[in-house]
Write a structure and sequence with these properties.
ASCH domain-containing protein; alpha/beta; about 160 residues
Length: about 160
């Protein structure tokens, strides 16, 4: 079962799939191959408030490093291409109580699942067909594809 992770400060970047790295003050228990379900809010929901799941991703790497070790490329991977590393460090410290530039932070990198161009199903949330969950009929270099359920009905662009 995937762990839930809040992405409250970067929900738009996750929805756009432009965020592939996150930094956390904890989260040392993860390992490559673990699944994370990214949500706008996990804790602090009101009674009866539904948990919104954006996407389930796969952890591809993680390491501990000082927050100030962030590179320009990682600021972009965090979903903030307009920030410098110093601006990101200031932002992170301002939004995470007790964190300083020298704090040891867990850097978590993930990969998004393949997405069906026709129906939007993914590796972790496939379509149910009559005999089994769908699989990939066709895959493309941009991490999309066509699932077997969609290729039996119609191809994108057919009408």
């Amino acid at each position: 079962m995937p762990r839930l992770m809040s992405v409250a400060l970067t929900t738009v970047q996750v929805r756009n799939r432009t965020k592939t790295v996150t930094r956390r003050a904890g989260w040392q228990m993860l390992a490559p191959g673990d699944l994370l379900t990214l949500c706008p809010k996990v804790r602090g929901r009101r009674h009866g408030e539904a948990l919104e799941r954006i996407v389930t991703v796969e952890v591809v790497s993680l390491r501990r490093e000082p927050l100030a070790a962030i590179t320009g490329d990682d600021v972009i991977a965090e979903g903030f291409p307009e920030m410098t590393p110093a601006e990101f460090v200031d932002f992170f410290c301002a939004t995470h109580t007790g964190v300083t530039p020298t704090s040891q932070i867990t850097r978590i990198e993930w990969a998004y699942p393949r997405l069906c161009r026709a129906c939007g199903c993914t590796d972790h949330a496939g379509c149910d067909t009559l005999t089994r969950p769908c699989s990939w009929h066709t895959t493309y270099d941009d991490n999309t594809g066509l699932c077997t359920a969609c290729t039996t009905t119609s191809q994108p662009g057919e009408g």
